[in-house]
Each structure stands twice: as C-alpha cells, then as structure tokens.
Amino acid sequence: MAERFDLAVVGGGIVGLATARRYAEEYPDARIVLVEKERELAAHQSGRNSGVVHSGVSYRPGSRKARFTLSGRAELLAYVRSRGLATEALGKLIVARTERDLPDLDELARRAAANGVPGVRRLGPEGIRAREPEVVGVAALFVPSAAIVDFAEIARSFARDLEAAGHAIRRATPIDRIVPHGDEVHLIGASGAIELEARRAVACAGLGSDRLARRSGVRPAVRIVPFRGEFYEVRSRATPLVRGLVYAVPDPTLPFAEPHFTPDVRGRVWVGPNAVLALAREGYRRRSFRWKDAAEELADPALWRLLGRLGPRALREGWRSIDRSTYAADLARMVPALRRRDLGEARAGVRAQAVDDAGNLVDDFVWAETPGAVHLLNAPSPAATGAMAIARAIAERLPLPGRLRRPTEGGTFKPA
Asked: Where are the domains of the chain?
C-alpha cells in the first residue's frame, strides 16, 4: 500500500520547501511529505539565479508580486539571520542609460512609492558616480534595501528544518499527476502506480508546473515557455568596477532580460542575463535540445504570437547569446571600462515563464485548484524572495481537514 500523509508537496525548490515548512508550523500534528523528482533539492530555478533579495520596486502596485515581495522579504531575511546564513545588504542602482529610459525610470519611482519601498531616491549623473564611480547614466534610482543571499542554501536549510521535525522528503521521485480519490488525493508516479496518498496536495513544480496540472485535470489558461538566461562571471581584474547591484532600466517588452551586475555572497561578480528561447525545459547549454519540449513549444500558436510581439528583440537576444562581444558592448553602455576579455565562465538558468493564449507574458503569480489540491502555475522572480509569503497564502487557501490549526509567525522551528 502507498504511504499516507496529511499533506504532500510536489517540488523541491525554495517555494515548495517553504510551503511544506509553513504547513508544518501551522499543523504541528500533521504528517507531511515533500516530493522532488531530482536527486538534489533546488536543482533548477532555486539553484540557478542571481541571488538577489528584491525590494518591490518594479512590481505593479496591488499585484501578488508586490504583496509577496514586500511581506516575504522581511520574513526571509529574518530567517537567514536566525540561521547564520550568508547575506549582505548591498543596495541596488537602477540606471537610465539614455534619455529614452527616463519615462520607465519615472514609472519605477512611482511604483516604489506606491509599494512603500523604503529609502528609494533619485540620483543624477554626479550621484551615480559618487555611489558607483565606473557607472554612467543620465539618472538612476538607488534602492538601499536590496540584498544578496544564496537561495539554494536557504532551500536546503528549510529541508533540514522539515526533516528535524520528523517530516519526510522523497528525492528522485517524479510525480506524473495528482488525482482526487474520495476526500483525498493520490499522487501517481510515471509508471502509473500510486506513489503516495494524502489528504491534500500542493504542486510547486516550476518548469513542469503546467504539464503536471494538465495531467491532473486542470485546463490552465497559461503554458510555460522556457527562457534560458546566461550569466558570465566577471574576471578578477574587473570585479572592482562595481560596488553593489547595478541594473539597467528594464525594457517593458522583456523585463527580465536587461543586464545587471550582481556580486554574490562568495565575493564573485556576475553579469547578465539575456533571455533566449530554450528548446529544452531544463536546457542549460546553448545546444540543449529535447524533441518533446521543442515540438510542444513550436506547435503552440501562443509562442508565435509572443515572438511576433517581441520582433527584433527576440533576434537580438539570440545574437547576444552567440556573440560575447555584442553582450559585452551592451554592458559597456553602463560600465564603459568593461571589456569582452573581462567576461569569464558562463552559467545559465532557465526561467519558467507563463504565457497566456494571446501570447502575452504573464506578469504575476498564477495558481489553479482541483479537488484537494493547489497548483502553482507561474512563480517567476521574485518567487524566491517572496517564498515564505507565497507559502502562507497557499496554506490559507488550502487548509488541512481534521487537523488543529495553530497560526504562527515562525516560532515552531528554532535555530539549532
């Protein structure tokens, strides 16, 4: 017989782990299992990102992105400090490189004020040089609350909390679908056998979220289109070119593709990303290709509508991926002293970006429900920053029947 739990969470990234941990706090007598298809936790988006704890500057006021960022970042940073994990408050400079960027910079300032982001101030060229001597621009916003962490290490710390409290983590256990069965749900594996039984289930499946939802009976209004984002490590000669986080004002048509300079908690500096359509959902190399993924993408009219909207921008992103000199030249518009030879080792992540039927990028968190289960269908950046707030919202949405609930503000799991 399949093992039985009160709650099963599918997905061992930071959002799934935060969600399992939240339920464990609120329902201390529940039996909880987290299921991950890989042998390692945080193997995909949670372990392949820039490590930035966002402040909420760019998100539409009132959106889930804004709410989860503003409430989640404080909780996340308090957790990091309580566990002695690495973090540093570097601040972020968002730079308007030309006059054409100024309307978008003004909109960011408006959103920052509406979202209550503390301490944001506008700088002119002299103010930019005072904070970042090697950076040029016509104006900038300085966001003092931006910080850096290691999200993969936070995810692993969440896992240690769960296991120390007696809950289960099943690695290397792919789940094909979640189906209702009476008042419970069954988690079905790739072989068609029942892997687990649970009273309730939450799916935080990232790059596979839409497929798991469809196989579970959801008709999602979105599909995942994977975009590979490539980062280069700045060679040691050039790491002093920036002191903190330095971002270009994002292009609203493809807001996650504008380059930024990101120091990490190990003292390295990374630049990127671009945004290239990936022909494999877990394709971290330029030549990564998977027939099933590519065929599904290229047969979808929504993708072609999206590419039509992006137009030359899509071609430019592809060329920037191939030609490192073009990539370096774009970065040098903001940091003129940077040279192609300063771009060292490359790494990449794949962003699970939801796209709607009309070919629009979906710019907020999306979830759907089936009897006994919640599917998180779009969890882009700032999902890692807001993971603990997302977890709280999911627990509110899907209570566990037959278990006494104890509202908590994080007091159950004490630091070792």
From this structure: 1-87+149-221+365-416, 92-144, 225-356
Beta bridge partner(s), residue 92: 143, 245
Cis amide bond preceding 382, omega within 30: yes
Which residue type sits at 288? S
Task: Write out pLDDT tens, residues 80-136.
Answer: 999 999 999 999 999 999 999 999 999 999 999 999 999 999 999 999 999 999 999
At 84, is the secondary structure helix, strand, or coil? coil
DSSP string, 75-105: HHHHHHHHHT--EE---EEEEE-SGGGHHHH
Within 335-379, residue ranges assigned H as helices are none
Q: How far is CA 230 from CA 169, 236, 304, in A?
A: 31, 19, 23
> Which of 77-91, 166-180, 251-265, 330-344 is least confident?
251-265
- Indicate the pTM of the whole model: 0.95
Residues in the chain: 416
Beta strand pairing call for 32-35 and 139-143: unpaired
HSE-CB of 1 using CA atoms within 13 angstroms:
5
Residue appearing with tokens 């039985």: 4
Query: Is 197 within 8 Å of 35 (Cβ atoms)?
Result: no
CB 198 within 8 A of CB 80: no
The separation between the first and the last C-alpha atoms of the chain, rounded to the nearest angstrom, is: 36
CATH assignment of 1-87+149-221+365-416, among 3.90.660.10, 3.50.50.60, 3.40.50.12780, 3.20.20.150 = 3.50.50.60
